[in-house]
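ok so i was messing around last nite and threw this chain in just to see what happens. nothing serious, just curious
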Amino acid sequence: MAQVLFTLLMLVILQAVLGFDNLLYISLESKKAPLDQQKRVRKIGILIAIVLRIVLLFVLVSVIDYFQEPFSFLTGEIENVFKFAFNGHSIIVLVGGGFIIYTAIKEIWHMISTSDLNHDVEGDSKRNKSANAVITSIVIMNLVFSFDSILAAIGLTNEIENATTAFIVMAVAIVASGLLMLLMADKISVFLAKNRMYEVLGLFILFIVGIMLVTEGGHLAHLKIFGNEIVPMSKTTFYFVIVVLVIVDIVQGRYQKKLIKEQISDNNSH
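result:
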């Protein structure tokens, strides 16, 4: 019993830590929905994702070997140039990572190319999505983000001999982490709305998440380019980069405020 409770605690912590980038994506993506529906979109998207995560867990437990074994028709090489052996896991992670990179670059480009900041706050008709479209995006990306965390959960519960108990422990951890996301989603969205300068930081973090997923997908697909194997970005490196980005953003913000104060002081003195 003690082992089961300890494993459950570890799983909830794991799901919470790995869910941070997912939460960031939800907060940024929900801004594309109509303003009066954004809160509802986040809640519905997360609730649907929790249910689908449990379904995905059941599927992975049942057919995990199929996702790990390379597809024969997607295995091959061009001598000394390119080598690959794609499996279900690698394709999901690569596509998800590529989409996140595309989303981050598109949003960053929109920020630097938009001249009217007030118009950008309200959003424009070209960028707005319907509530259902945003919910669909949130659910799909939630599943992509959850794929690795579920596989890690399966690994952590290997020591639990009873398969039914192991499944229940993983399901409870998924529900607990999902409810935590439900509580935090609105707070993060409100924070980003009040501190819009941190949106850039959030988008660059999302960009790094995309790179991490692409390198992981390349590693899972056993990709080799000119004889060089794709090495996945470690979680330690990822969190180190995030800490550096946050520190740089804080220092830059304070330095910018100092420069503005000095400029105002100089203007007043003249």
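not much to say yet. The mean pLDDT is 77.
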